[in-house]
Amino acid sequence: MARQQGDYIEGRDLMVFVDTGSSGSPVWTPTAAATSHTISYSGETKERVTKDTENGAFSQKSVTKLSCSITVEALRVFNKEVGFEKMLELMKKRDPVKLKYGFTDSADSYEEGMFVITSLEESSPADDDASYSCTLENTGAVETKTSGGE
């Protein structure tokens, strides 16, 4: 179903995909049993205060660096392609991971970049499903791309 301007977007329509391909061309695999994703952008600023700044009360700022972090919350699933075990394997390798964040049907624009896994946490309560949380931070540019225009 095509989205129209002004349509509400449901959380289940957005997904984090990991490139599981090994031969150049990406193979986008969704994070298994994901319950929530959070994508955060932030900017590092530089502050300037000069003697000729009007009344000296306000400084001038400029953005010097941008960063992006993605947090995946998911249930533990036995032997899935991109679950806790895979994320742990990738973290132990300490190599950047190629990620894509966008609509599950790939019909619109999405964000893509290289990320490093900075945190991986598992929770396994006696009376509930086992789950994990994985935080990834960009290394290099995160680009907005569109399907078909890659």
Mean pLDDT: 88
Query: How much helix, percentage-wise, in residues?
Result: under 10%
Q: H/E element string?
A: EEEEHEEE
Q: What are the low-pLDDT stretches, counting only 5+ consecutive residues below 50?
A: none
Give the radius of gyration: 19 Å
Helix-and-strand structural type: mainly beta
Q: Strand count, sense and closure of the main sheet? A: 7 strands, antiparallel
Count of individual beta strands? 7
**What is the distance, rounded to the nearest whole angstrom, between the alpha carbons of the first and last residues?**
22 Å
Q: What is the count of helical runs?
A: 1
Major sheet: arrangement of strands: 2-1-5-6-7-4-3
What is the overall silhouette? globular
- Percent strand: over 45%
Describe the structure in your own words.
This protein is mostly beta strands and 150 residues long. The chain has one helix and seven strands; from the N terminus they run ββββαβββ. The protein has one helix at 84-93, and strands at residues 14-19, 28-30, 34-48, 60-75, 97-103, 109-123, 131-146. It has a seven-stranded antiparallel sheet with strand order 2-1-5-6-7-4-3, covered by helices on one side. The longest helix has 10 residues, at 84-93. The chain is globular and about 65 Å long. The two termini are 22 Å apart. The relative contact order is 0.21.
